[in-house]
Amino acid sequence: MDAFKFSKVTTLDRAVQAAAKSPTAQQGAEVRLLAGGTTLIDLMKLTVERPKEVVDINGLPLDKIEATSSGGLIIGALARNSDVAHHPTVQRDYAVLSQALLSGASPQLRNMATTAGNLLQRTRCVYFRDTAHACNKREPGTGCSAIDGHNRMLAILGTSKDCIATNPSDQNVALTALEATIQIQGTKGQRSVPIHDFYLLPGSTPHIETVLEPGDVITSVTLPAPAAGSRSLYLKLRDRAAYEFALASAAIVVKVNGGKIQHARVALGGVGTRPWRSLEAEKALQGHTADAATFRKAAEVALKDAHPASENAFKVELSKRCLIRALTMSTKTA
Amino acid sequence: MAKHPPESESERRSGEQSAQASEANQPLLGRVSRRSFLSHLGAASIAATAPPLLASASPAPPVQEEAASVEGATAITLRVNGKDHRLQVDPRTTLLDCLRENLNLPGTKKGCDHGQCGACTVHVNGRRINSCLTFAVAHSDDEITTIEGIGQLDHLHPMQAAFVEHDGYQCGYCTSGQIMSAVALLKEPVGPTDEDVKQGMYGNICRCGAYSNIVAAVQYVRRQA
What we know:
The complex is a heterodimer.
Chain A: E1 5-8, H1 12-20, E2 31-34, H2 40-45, E3 53-56, E4 65-67, E5 73-76, H3 81-85, H4 88-93, H5 95-103, H6 107-112, H7 115-119, H8 171-177, E6 181-186, E7 189-194, H9 195-198, E8 217-223, E9 231-237, E10 248-257, E11 260-269, E12 276-277, H10 279-285, H11 292-302, H12 314-330
Parallel strand pairs in A: 1-3, 2-3
Antiparallel strand pairs in A: 4-5, 5-8, 6-7, 6-8, 9-10, 10-11, 11-12
Chain B: H1 9-23, H2 34-49, E1 74-80, E2 83-89, H3 95-102, E3 121-124, E4 127-130, E5 143-145, H4 158-165, H5 175-185, H6 194-201, H7 211-224
Parallel strand pairs in B: 1-5
Antiparallel strand pairs in B: 1-2, 3-4, 3-5
Protein backbone atom coordinates (compact mmCIF):
# COMPACT_ATOMS: atom_id res chain seq x y z
CA MET A 1 0.00 0.00 0.00
CA ASP A 2 1.31 3.46 -0.87
CA ALA A 3 1.83 5.90 1.97
CA PHE A 4 -0.83 8.58 2.26
CA LYS A 5 -1.80 11.59 4.32
CA PHE A 6 -4.72 10.80 6.62
CA SER A 7 -7.21 13.35 7.91
CA LYS A 8 -10.73 13.51 9.34
CA VAL A 9 -13.36 16.08 8.39
CA THR A 10 -16.57 16.83 10.22
CA THR A 11 -18.27 19.23 7.82
CA LEU A 12 -19.55 18.72 4.29
CA ASP A 13 -17.72 21.86 3.11
CA ARG A 14 -14.40 20.48 4.28
CA ALA A 15 -15.13 17.17 2.55
CA VAL A 16 -15.90 18.96 -0.73
CA GLN A 17 -12.75 21.07 -0.38
CA ALA A 18 -10.60 18.02 0.24
CA ALA A 19 -12.10 16.03 -2.63
CA ALA A 20 -11.75 18.99 -4.99
CA LYS A 21 -7.96 18.78 -4.72
CA SER A 22 -7.93 15.63 -6.84
CA PRO A 23 -7.69 16.11 -10.63
CA THR A 24 -10.23 13.30 -11.05
CA ALA A 25 -12.95 11.59 -9.02
CA GLN A 26 -12.60 8.46 -11.15
CA GLN A 27 -9.88 5.80 -11.32
CA GLY A 28 -6.55 7.34 -10.37
CA ALA A 29 -8.05 9.79 -7.87
CA GLU A 30 -5.41 11.40 -5.68
CA VAL A 31 -7.83 12.12 -2.86
CA ARG A 32 -10.28 9.48 -1.63
CA LEU A 33 -13.06 9.87 0.89
CA LEU A 34 -13.15 7.09 3.48
CA ALA A 35 -16.48 5.84 4.78
CA GLY A 36 -16.78 2.07 5.44
CA GLY A 37 -13.54 1.40 3.63
CA THR A 38 -14.62 -2.04 2.46
CA THR A 39 -13.90 -1.26 -1.20
CA LEU A 40 -11.28 1.46 -0.82
CA ILE A 41 -8.96 -0.30 1.63
CA ASP A 42 -9.35 -3.61 -0.23
CA LEU A 43 -8.16 -1.91 -3.44
CA MET A 44 -5.44 0.09 -1.68
CA LYS A 45 -3.96 -3.19 -0.43
CA LEU A 46 -3.82 -4.34 -4.05
CA THR A 47 -2.30 -1.00 -5.14
CA VAL A 48 -5.22 -0.62 -7.56
CA GLU A 49 -6.19 2.50 -5.61
CA ARG A 50 -3.25 4.77 -4.80
CA PRO A 51 -4.58 7.96 -3.22
CA LYS A 52 -2.07 10.44 -1.85
CA GLU A 53 -4.67 11.55 0.65
CA VAL A 54 -7.41 9.67 2.50
CA VAL A 55 -10.10 11.79 4.16
CA ASP A 56 -12.25 10.12 6.80
CA ILE A 57 -15.82 11.41 6.43
CA ASN A 58 -17.48 9.11 8.97
CA GLY A 59 -18.02 12.11 11.23
CA LEU A 60 -20.34 13.84 8.76
CA PRO A 61 -24.01 13.94 9.84
CA LEU A 62 -25.23 11.97 6.81
CA ASP A 63 -26.56 8.75 8.30
CA LYS A 64 -30.27 9.45 8.76
CA ILE A 65 -33.07 7.42 7.14
CA GLU A 66 -36.19 9.57 7.08
CA ALA A 67 -39.51 9.99 5.31
CA THR A 68 -39.76 12.77 2.73
CA SER A 69 -42.68 15.17 2.55
CA SER A 70 -43.93 13.42 -0.61
CA GLY A 71 -44.18 10.01 1.06
CA GLY A 72 -40.84 8.74 -0.12
CA LEU A 73 -37.64 8.01 1.78
CA ILE A 74 -34.32 9.78 2.06
CA ILE A 75 -31.35 7.58 2.94
CA GLY A 76 -28.21 9.32 4.15
CA ALA A 77 -24.99 8.59 2.26
CA LEU A 78 -23.38 7.28 5.42
CA ALA A 79 -26.27 5.07 6.53
CA ARG A 80 -24.78 1.60 7.00
CA ASN A 81 -26.05 -1.17 4.71
CA SER A 82 -27.22 -3.22 7.73
CA ASP A 83 -29.23 -0.29 9.12
CA VAL A 84 -30.90 0.34 5.77
CA ALA A 85 -31.66 -3.36 5.28
CA HIS A 86 -33.31 -3.67 8.69
CA HIS A 87 -35.16 -0.36 8.64
CA PRO A 88 -38.92 -0.99 9.08
CA THR A 89 -39.93 1.45 6.33
CA VAL A 90 -37.47 -0.10 3.89
CA GLN A 91 -38.71 -3.58 4.72
CA ARG A 92 -42.34 -2.56 4.36
CA ASP A 93 -42.28 -0.20 1.36
CA TYR A 94 -39.05 -1.02 -0.49
CA ALA A 95 -38.59 -4.72 0.23
CA VAL A 96 -36.43 -5.20 -2.89
CA LEU A 97 -33.79 -2.92 -1.36
CA SER A 98 -33.73 -4.78 1.95
CA GLN A 99 -33.56 -8.14 0.19
CA ALA A 100 -30.80 -6.94 -2.13
CA LEU A 101 -28.68 -5.61 0.72
CA LEU A 102 -29.12 -8.75 2.83
CA SER A 103 -28.11 -10.93 -0.13
CA GLY A 104 -24.80 -9.15 -0.43
CA ALA A 105 -21.45 -9.31 1.36
CA SER A 106 -21.55 -10.48 5.01
CA PRO A 107 -23.02 -9.15 8.26
CA GLN A 108 -19.63 -7.70 9.18
CA LEU A 109 -19.21 -5.96 5.83
CA ARG A 110 -22.79 -4.67 5.94
CA ASN A 111 -22.09 -3.08 9.31
CA MET A 112 -19.21 -1.17 7.74
CA ALA A 113 -20.43 -0.44 4.23
CA THR A 114 -22.41 2.72 3.53
CA THR A 115 -25.10 3.60 1.00
CA ALA A 116 -22.82 5.90 -1.01
CA GLY A 117 -19.87 3.54 -0.71
CA ASN A 118 -22.00 0.76 -2.15
CA LEU A 119 -23.04 3.03 -5.04
CA LEU A 120 -19.33 3.42 -5.78
CA GLN A 121 -18.41 -0.23 -5.37
CA ARG A 122 -15.89 -1.34 -8.01
CA THR A 123 -15.82 -4.33 -10.31
CA ARG A 124 -14.53 -7.71 -9.09
CA CYS A 125 -12.86 -8.46 -12.44
CA VAL A 126 -9.67 -10.33 -11.53
CA TYR A 127 -7.62 -8.39 -14.04
CA PHE A 128 -8.73 -5.01 -12.70
CA ARG A 129 -7.71 -6.20 -9.26
CA ASP A 130 -4.30 -7.50 -10.33
CA THR A 131 -1.71 -4.89 -11.33
CA ALA A 132 0.31 -7.57 -13.12
CA HIS A 133 -2.33 -7.68 -15.87
CA ALA A 134 -3.33 -5.17 -18.53
CA CYS A 135 -6.58 -3.39 -17.73
CA ASN A 136 -8.10 -0.40 -19.53
CA LYS A 137 -10.20 0.48 -16.50
CA ARG A 138 -7.25 0.63 -14.16
CA GLU A 139 -4.68 1.93 -16.65
CA PRO A 140 -6.30 3.43 -19.79
CA GLY A 141 -4.94 2.20 -23.07
CA THR A 142 -3.21 -0.93 -21.77
CA GLY A 143 -5.82 -3.37 -23.12
CA CYS A 144 -8.47 -5.70 -21.69
CA SER A 145 -7.12 -9.00 -20.37
CA ALA A 146 -10.61 -10.35 -19.68
CA ILE A 147 -11.97 -10.50 -23.22
CA ASP A 148 -9.55 -13.34 -24.09
CA GLY A 149 -9.13 -14.48 -20.52
CA HIS A 150 -11.26 -15.61 -17.58
CA ASN A 151 -14.57 -13.83 -17.99
CA ARG A 152 -17.16 -16.19 -16.50
CA MET A 153 -18.23 -13.59 -13.92
CA LEU A 154 -18.22 -10.65 -16.30
CA ALA A 155 -20.81 -8.72 -18.26
CA ILE A 156 -22.96 -9.55 -21.27
CA LEU A 157 -24.78 -6.22 -21.47
CA GLY A 158 -23.27 -2.78 -22.02
CA THR A 159 -19.84 -4.14 -22.90
CA SER A 160 -17.35 -2.65 -25.34
CA LYS A 161 -14.23 -3.91 -27.06
CA ASP A 162 -12.28 -2.17 -24.32
CA CYS A 163 -14.04 -3.48 -21.21
CA ILE A 164 -16.50 -6.18 -20.11
CA ALA A 165 -16.31 -5.67 -16.34
CA THR A 166 -19.53 -6.19 -14.35
CA ASN A 167 -20.88 -3.83 -11.74
CA PRO A 168 -21.22 -6.33 -8.86
CA SER A 169 -23.57 -4.47 -6.49
CA ASP A 170 -26.96 -5.77 -5.40
CA GLN A 171 -28.01 -2.52 -3.74
CA ASN A 172 -27.60 -0.57 -6.96
CA VAL A 173 -29.81 -2.94 -8.95
CA ALA A 174 -32.59 -2.54 -6.38
CA LEU A 175 -32.14 1.26 -6.30
CA THR A 176 -32.37 1.28 -10.10
CA ALA A 177 -35.69 -0.59 -10.08
CA LEU A 178 -36.87 1.83 -7.38
CA GLU A 179 -35.88 4.82 -9.56
CA ALA A 180 -33.70 6.33 -6.86
CA THR A 181 -32.18 9.80 -7.12
CA ILE A 182 -28.68 10.58 -5.89
CA GLN A 183 -28.00 13.89 -4.16
CA ILE A 184 -24.51 15.27 -4.64
CA GLN A 185 -22.79 18.27 -3.05
CA GLY A 186 -20.01 19.68 -5.21
CA THR A 187 -17.86 22.75 -5.70
CA LYS A 188 -20.73 24.47 -7.52
CA GLY A 189 -23.43 23.52 -5.04
CA GLN A 190 -26.00 20.75 -4.82
CA ARG A 191 -27.47 18.65 -7.60
CA SER A 192 -29.64 15.56 -8.03
CA VAL A 193 -28.89 12.78 -10.51
CA PRO A 194 -31.33 9.96 -11.27
CA ILE A 195 -29.53 6.67 -10.70
CA HIS A 196 -30.27 5.73 -14.31
CA ASP A 197 -28.00 8.61 -15.39
CA PHE A 198 -25.35 8.15 -12.71
CA TYR A 199 -23.38 5.26 -14.19
CA LEU A 200 -21.58 5.43 -17.53
CA LEU A 201 -21.06 2.64 -20.03
CA PRO A 202 -17.39 1.72 -20.46
CA GLY A 203 -17.21 2.55 -24.16
CA SER A 204 -13.65 3.57 -24.91
CA THR A 205 -13.21 5.14 -21.46
CA PRO A 206 -13.83 2.35 -18.94
CA HIS A 207 -11.82 4.24 -16.32
CA ILE A 208 -14.67 6.76 -16.12
CA GLU A 209 -17.48 4.95 -14.28
CA THR A 210 -19.82 7.64 -12.96
CA VAL A 211 -20.71 11.30 -13.52
CA LEU A 212 -18.85 12.34 -10.34
CA GLU A 213 -16.45 15.27 -10.69
CA PRO A 214 -13.62 16.37 -8.36
CA GLY A 215 -15.10 17.79 -5.18
CA ASP A 216 -18.34 15.79 -5.43
CA VAL A 217 -19.61 14.22 -2.23
CA ILE A 218 -22.74 12.05 -2.35
CA THR A 219 -24.98 13.20 0.51
CA SER A 220 -28.10 11.05 0.19
CA VAL A 221 -30.25 8.78 -1.94
CA THR A 222 -33.96 9.48 -2.21
CA LEU A 223 -36.66 7.03 -3.11
CA PRO A 224 -40.05 8.10 -4.48
CA ALA A 225 -43.19 7.09 -2.63
CA PRO A 226 -43.93 3.43 -3.35
CA ALA A 227 -46.51 2.85 -6.08
CA ALA A 228 -49.73 1.99 -4.22
CA GLY A 229 -50.47 -1.73 -4.25
CA SER A 230 -47.10 -2.65 -5.73
CA ARG A 231 -44.81 -5.44 -4.57
CA SER A 232 -41.09 -5.69 -4.96
CA LEU A 233 -38.59 -8.49 -4.91
CA TYR A 234 -34.90 -9.25 -5.43
CA LEU A 235 -33.76 -12.61 -6.77
CA LYS A 236 -30.05 -13.42 -6.80
CA LEU A 237 -28.54 -16.45 -8.52
CA ARG A 238 -24.96 -17.44 -7.72
CA ASP A 239 -22.54 -20.32 -7.30
CA ARG A 240 -22.94 -20.42 -3.51
CA ALA A 241 -25.98 -19.79 -1.33
CA ALA A 242 -24.17 -17.00 0.51
CA TYR A 243 -21.16 -14.66 0.57
CA GLU A 244 -20.83 -14.58 -3.21
CA PHE A 245 -21.52 -12.14 -6.02
CA ALA A 246 -24.39 -12.59 -8.47
CA LEU A 247 -24.08 -14.53 -11.69
CA ALA A 248 -27.45 -13.03 -12.54
CA SER A 249 -29.99 -11.16 -10.46
CA ALA A 250 -33.25 -9.31 -10.93
CA ALA A 251 -34.95 -6.50 -9.04
CA ILE A 252 -38.67 -6.20 -9.69
CA VAL A 253 -41.29 -3.65 -8.68
CA VAL A 254 -44.69 -4.71 -9.96
CA LYS A 255 -48.37 -4.07 -9.50
CA VAL A 256 -51.01 -6.44 -10.86
CA ASN A 257 -54.67 -5.54 -11.10
CA GLY A 258 -57.28 -8.00 -12.31
CA GLY A 259 -54.57 -10.25 -13.72
CA LYS A 260 -53.00 -7.41 -15.75
CA ILE A 261 -49.66 -5.74 -14.99
CA GLN A 262 -50.34 -2.10 -14.14
CA HIS A 263 -46.86 -1.02 -13.12
CA ALA A 264 -43.52 -2.69 -13.76
CA ARG A 265 -39.92 -1.77 -13.11
CA VAL A 266 -37.13 -4.18 -13.99
CA ALA A 267 -33.40 -4.01 -13.26
CA LEU A 268 -30.85 -6.75 -13.84
CA GLY A 269 -27.66 -7.45 -11.91
CA GLY A 270 -24.59 -9.60 -12.47
CA VAL A 271 -24.85 -9.16 -16.23
CA GLY A 272 -24.31 -5.46 -16.91
CA THR A 273 -21.36 -3.12 -16.94
CA ARG A 274 -23.64 -0.97 -14.83
CA PRO A 275 -26.86 -1.74 -12.92
CA TRP A 276 -29.09 -2.64 -15.85
CA ARG A 277 -32.49 -0.95 -16.07
CA SER A 278 -34.55 -2.77 -18.69
CA LEU A 279 -37.06 -0.36 -20.21
CA GLU A 280 -37.62 -2.97 -22.93
CA ALA A 281 -38.79 -5.56 -20.41
CA GLU A 282 -41.02 -2.98 -18.70
CA LYS A 283 -42.67 -2.12 -22.02
CA ALA A 284 -43.29 -5.82 -22.71
CA LEU A 285 -44.92 -6.18 -19.28
CA GLN A 286 -46.97 -3.02 -18.89
CA GLY A 287 -50.69 -3.64 -19.60
CA HIS A 288 -50.20 -7.33 -20.36
CA THR A 289 -51.53 -10.39 -18.54
CA ALA A 290 -49.29 -11.52 -15.72
CA ASP A 291 -48.52 -14.99 -17.06
CA ALA A 292 -45.62 -17.17 -18.18
CA ALA A 293 -45.92 -16.15 -21.83
CA THR A 294 -45.65 -12.45 -20.97
CA PHE A 295 -42.74 -13.05 -18.64
CA ARG A 296 -40.87 -15.06 -21.29
CA LYS A 297 -41.41 -12.27 -23.87
CA ALA A 298 -40.10 -9.69 -21.40
CA ALA A 299 -37.03 -11.82 -20.69
CA GLU A 300 -36.31 -12.25 -24.40
CA VAL A 301 -36.38 -8.52 -25.11
CA ALA A 302 -34.39 -7.71 -21.96
CA LEU A 303 -31.50 -9.85 -23.16
CA LYS A 304 -31.93 -9.18 -26.88
CA ASP A 305 -28.66 -7.21 -27.14
CA ALA A 306 -26.64 -9.51 -24.90
CA HIS A 307 -23.07 -9.90 -26.11
CA PRO A 308 -21.48 -12.79 -24.23
CA ALA A 309 -17.75 -13.39 -23.93
CA SER A 310 -15.94 -16.74 -24.22
CA GLU A 311 -16.93 -18.09 -20.79
CA ASN A 312 -20.24 -16.47 -19.92
CA ALA A 313 -22.72 -17.35 -22.67
CA PHE A 314 -24.66 -19.29 -20.01
CA LYS A 315 -25.56 -15.96 -18.42
CA VAL A 316 -27.90 -15.10 -21.29
CA GLU A 317 -30.35 -17.91 -20.52
CA LEU A 318 -29.65 -17.72 -16.77
CA SER A 319 -30.54 -14.05 -16.70
CA LYS A 320 -33.75 -14.67 -18.66
CA ARG A 321 -34.82 -17.44 -16.28
CA CYS A 322 -33.87 -15.27 -13.31
CA LEU A 323 -36.14 -12.51 -14.59
CA ILE A 324 -38.98 -14.93 -15.34
CA ARG A 325 -38.68 -16.52 -11.89
CA ALA A 326 -38.58 -13.12 -10.18
CA LEU A 327 -41.67 -11.98 -12.07
CA THR A 328 -43.47 -15.21 -11.23
CA MET A 329 -42.63 -14.89 -7.55
CA SER A 330 -43.55 -11.22 -7.29
CA THR A 331 -46.91 -11.60 -9.05
CA LYS A 332 -47.98 -14.77 -7.30
CA THR A 333 -51.40 -14.42 -5.71
CA ALA A 334 -51.66 -16.12 -2.32
CA MET B 1 -32.71 -13.04 22.12
CA ALA B 2 -29.88 -13.91 24.52
CA LYS B 3 -28.12 -11.13 26.45
CA HIS B 4 -24.80 -11.72 28.13
CA PRO B 5 -24.61 -10.46 31.72
CA PRO B 6 -22.80 -7.16 32.33
CA GLU B 7 -19.19 -7.54 33.46
CA SER B 8 -18.59 -7.33 37.19
CA GLU B 9 -15.81 -5.11 38.47
CA SER B 10 -13.63 -8.13 39.32
CA GLU B 11 -14.17 -9.59 35.85
CA ARG B 12 -13.04 -6.38 34.28
CA ARG B 13 -9.99 -6.10 36.49
CA SER B 14 -8.97 -9.70 35.92
CA GLY B 15 -9.42 -9.07 32.21
CA GLU B 16 -7.07 -6.11 32.44
CA GLN B 17 -4.56 -8.12 34.45
CA SER B 18 -4.32 -10.97 31.99
CA ALA B 19 -4.23 -8.49 29.12
CA GLN B 20 -1.36 -6.74 30.86
CA ALA B 21 0.34 -10.08 31.44
CA SER B 22 0.29 -10.94 27.76
CA GLU B 23 1.19 -7.39 26.87
CA ALA B 24 4.40 -7.67 28.87
CA ASN B 25 5.07 -11.01 27.17
CA GLN B 26 5.12 -12.89 30.45
CA PRO B 27 4.39 -16.54 29.72
CA LEU B 28 0.97 -17.35 31.07
CA LEU B 29 1.63 -20.91 32.16
CA GLY B 30 5.01 -20.56 33.85
CA ARG B 31 7.09 -21.66 30.88
CA VAL B 32 8.67 -19.83 27.92
CA SER B 33 6.40 -19.88 24.86
CA ARG B 34 7.56 -19.52 21.23
CA ARG B 35 5.63 -16.29 21.06
CA SER B 36 7.41 -14.69 24.04
CA PHE B 37 10.83 -16.00 22.94
CA LEU B 38 10.50 -14.52 19.45
CA SER B 39 9.04 -11.28 20.82
CA HIS B 40 12.06 -10.87 23.12
CA LEU B 41 14.42 -11.31 20.16
CA GLY B 42 12.52 -8.71 18.17
CA ALA B 43 12.31 -6.29 21.08
CA ALA B 44 16.05 -6.56 21.72
CA SER B 45 16.86 -5.55 18.15
CA ILE B 46 14.40 -2.65 18.25
CA ALA B 47 15.94 -1.46 21.54
CA ALA B 48 19.40 -1.65 19.96
CA THR B 49 18.55 0.51 16.95
CA ALA B 50 16.01 2.88 18.49
CA PRO B 51 16.83 6.54 19.26
CA PRO B 52 18.28 7.42 22.70
CA LEU B 53 14.78 7.82 24.14
CA LEU B 54 14.42 4.06 24.24
CA ALA B 55 17.96 3.22 25.36
CA SER B 56 16.79 2.27 28.84
CA ALA B 57 13.78 0.25 27.66
CA SER B 58 13.40 -3.26 29.05
CA PRO B 59 13.59 -6.14 26.55
CA ALA B 60 9.80 -6.60 26.73
CA PRO B 61 8.39 -3.80 24.54
CA PRO B 62 6.08 -1.43 26.44
CA VAL B 63 2.69 -1.40 24.81
CA GLN B 64 1.10 1.76 26.12
CA GLU B 65 3.51 3.98 24.20
CA GLU B 66 5.77 3.40 21.22
CA ALA B 67 8.31 5.87 19.88
CA ALA B 68 7.76 7.39 16.45
CA SER B 69 10.25 5.32 14.49
CA VAL B 70 8.17 5.27 11.29
CA GLU B 71 8.00 8.25 8.98
CA GLY B 72 4.46 9.53 8.71
CA ALA B 73 3.48 7.87 11.98
CA THR B 74 0.41 9.41 13.56
CA ALA B 75 -0.32 9.62 17.28
CA ILE B 76 -3.63 8.07 18.27
CA THR B 77 -5.34 6.76 21.36
CA LEU B 78 -7.23 3.50 20.93
CA ARG B 79 -9.68 2.21 23.49
CA VAL B 80 -9.47 -1.59 23.40
CA ASN B 81 -11.28 -3.85 25.84
CA GLY B 82 -11.96 -0.91 28.10
CA LYS B 83 -8.37 0.30 28.24
CA ASP B 84 -6.79 3.31 26.51
CA HIS B 85 -3.58 2.82 24.55
CA ARG B 86 -1.47 5.70 23.22
CA LEU B 87 0.26 4.71 20.00
CA GLN B 88 2.17 6.03 17.04
CA VAL B 89 1.06 4.20 13.92
CA ASP B 90 1.60 4.50 10.20
CA PRO B 91 -1.81 5.46 8.76
CA ARG B 92 -1.65 2.35 6.56
CA THR B 93 -1.83 0.11 9.63
CA THR B 94 -5.12 -1.76 9.65
CA LEU B 95 -6.94 -2.18 12.93
CA LEU B 96 -6.15 -5.90 12.63
CA ASP B 97 -2.39 -5.37 12.37
CA CYS B 98 -2.49 -2.75 15.09
CA LEU B 99 -4.20 -5.14 17.50
CA ARG B 100 -1.89 -8.03 16.68
CA GLU B 101 1.44 -6.28 16.22
CA ASN B 102 1.32 -2.94 18.01
CA LEU B 103 -0.91 -3.93 20.94
CA ASN B 104 0.18 -7.56 21.23
CA LEU B 105 -3.39 -8.84 21.21
CA PRO B 106 -2.97 -11.72 18.76
CA GLY B 107 -6.29 -13.38 19.53
CA THR B 108 -7.77 -11.75 16.43
CA LYS B 109 -6.54 -13.64 13.38
CA LYS B 110 -5.57 -12.71 9.85
CA GLY B 111 -7.18 -15.18 7.44
CA CYS B 112 -7.44 -13.40 4.10
CA ASP B 113 -6.74 -9.73 4.90
CA HIS B 114 -9.44 -8.74 2.38
CA GLY B 115 -12.75 -9.04 4.21
CA GLN B 116 -13.57 -12.42 2.71
CA CYS B 117 -13.24 -14.84 5.64
CA GLY B 118 -14.26 -13.17 8.92
CA ALA B 119 -11.31 -14.46 10.99
CA CYS B 120 -10.48 -10.84 11.88
CA THR B 121 -13.93 -10.05 13.31
CA VAL B 122 -13.92 -7.63 16.25
CA HIS B 123 -16.55 -5.32 17.75
CA VAL B 124 -16.41 -1.57 17.17
CA ASN B 125 -18.98 0.21 19.32
CA GLY B 126 -20.67 -3.15 19.83
CA ARG B 127 -20.98 -4.01 16.13
CA ARG B 128 -19.10 -6.77 14.41
CA ILE B 129 -16.75 -5.67 11.63
CA ASN B 130 -13.76 -7.02 9.70
CA SER B 131 -10.73 -5.35 11.28
CA CYS B 132 -8.59 -6.04 8.20
CA LEU B 133 -10.50 -3.50 6.13
CA THR B 134 -10.31 -0.49 8.42
CA PHE B 135 -7.42 1.76 9.44
CA ALA B 136 -6.42 1.98 13.10
CA VAL B 137 -6.10 5.77 12.82
CA ALA B 138 -9.80 6.03 12.00
CA HIS B 139 -10.89 4.60 15.37
CA SER B 140 -9.65 7.06 17.96
CA ASP B 141 -13.20 7.77 19.18
CA ASP B 142 -14.42 4.18 19.20
CA GLU B 143 -14.80 1.34 21.71
CA ILE B 144 -13.05 -1.71 20.35
CA THR B 145 -13.64 -5.19 21.77
CA THR B 146 -11.51 -8.19 20.86
CA ILE B 147 -11.67 -11.85 21.84
CA GLU B 148 -9.31 -11.06 24.69
CA GLY B 149 -11.94 -8.71 26.07
CA ILE B 150 -15.00 -10.92 26.21
CA GLY B 151 -13.82 -13.58 28.61
CA GLN B 152 -10.84 -14.98 30.51
CA LEU B 153 -9.41 -18.48 31.03
CA ASP B 154 -10.97 -18.73 34.46
CA HIS B 155 -14.20 -17.00 33.49
CA LEU B 156 -15.23 -17.79 29.94
CA HIS B 157 -17.92 -15.88 28.13
CA PRO B 158 -20.96 -18.16 27.77
CA MET B 159 -20.32 -18.28 24.01
CA GLN B 160 -16.72 -19.42 24.56
CA ALA B 161 -17.94 -22.09 27.00
CA ALA B 162 -20.57 -23.21 24.49
CA PHE B 163 -17.97 -23.56 21.73
CA VAL B 164 -15.96 -25.82 24.03
CA GLU B 165 -18.99 -27.87 25.12
CA HIS B 166 -20.29 -28.30 21.57
CA ASP B 167 -16.89 -28.96 19.95
CA GLY B 168 -17.29 -25.84 17.82
CA TYR B 169 -13.71 -25.77 16.50
CA GLN B 170 -10.87 -27.98 15.24
CA CYS B 171 -7.73 -26.02 14.38
CA GLY B 172 -9.10 -22.96 16.16
CA TYR B 173 -7.94 -20.37 13.63
CA CYS B 174 -11.41 -19.11 12.66
CA THR B 175 -12.69 -19.53 16.19
CA SER B 176 -12.07 -16.12 17.70
CA GLY B 177 -13.77 -14.55 14.68
CA GLN B 178 -16.65 -17.02 14.96
CA ILE B 179 -17.11 -16.24 18.65
CA MET B 180 -16.94 -12.47 18.16
CA SER B 181 -19.44 -12.78 15.33
CA ALA B 182 -21.75 -15.00 17.37
CA VAL B 183 -21.65 -12.71 20.42
CA ALA B 184 -22.62 -9.73 18.26
CA LEU B 185 -25.34 -11.80 16.61
CA LEU B 186 -27.04 -12.19 20.00
CA LYS B 187 -28.03 -8.52 19.77
CA GLU B 188 -29.10 -8.56 16.11
CA PRO B 189 -32.52 -9.30 14.59
CA VAL B 190 -31.93 -12.96 13.66
CA GLY B 191 -34.75 -15.51 13.39
CA PRO B 192 -34.97 -18.53 15.68
CA THR B 193 -34.02 -21.41 13.36
CA ASP B 194 -30.68 -23.05 12.62
CA GLU B 195 -31.02 -21.73 9.06
CA ASP B 196 -31.40 -18.20 10.46
CA VAL B 197 -28.20 -18.65 12.47
CA LYS B 198 -26.39 -19.90 9.35
CA GLN B 199 -27.56 -16.80 7.52
CA GLY B 200 -26.31 -14.69 10.39
CA MET B 201 -22.92 -16.38 10.54
CA TYR B 202 -22.03 -16.83 6.89
CA GLY B 203 -19.44 -14.07 7.08
CA ASN B 204 -17.19 -16.45 9.02
CA ILE B 205 -15.59 -19.23 7.03
CA CYS B 206 -14.28 -22.45 8.64
CA ARG B 207 -11.91 -24.55 6.56
CA CYS B 208 -12.14 -27.41 9.07
CA GLY B 209 -15.88 -27.51 8.55
CA ALA B 210 -16.99 -27.19 12.18
CA TYR B 211 -20.12 -25.36 11.03
CA SER B 212 -22.81 -27.66 12.43
CA ASN B 213 -21.22 -27.58 15.89
CA ILE B 214 -20.79 -23.81 15.67
CA VAL B 215 -24.51 -23.46 14.94
CA ALA B 216 -25.28 -25.79 17.85
CA ALA B 217 -23.13 -23.69 20.19
CA VAL B 218 -24.77 -20.44 19.10
CA GLN B 219 -28.26 -21.88 19.40
CA TYR B 220 -27.44 -23.23 22.85
CA VAL B 221 -26.47 -19.77 24.09
CA ARG B 222 -29.52 -18.19 22.46
CA ARG B 223 -31.81 -20.67 24.17
CA GLN B 224 -30.32 -19.93 27.58
CA ALA B 225 -31.67 -16.38 27.40
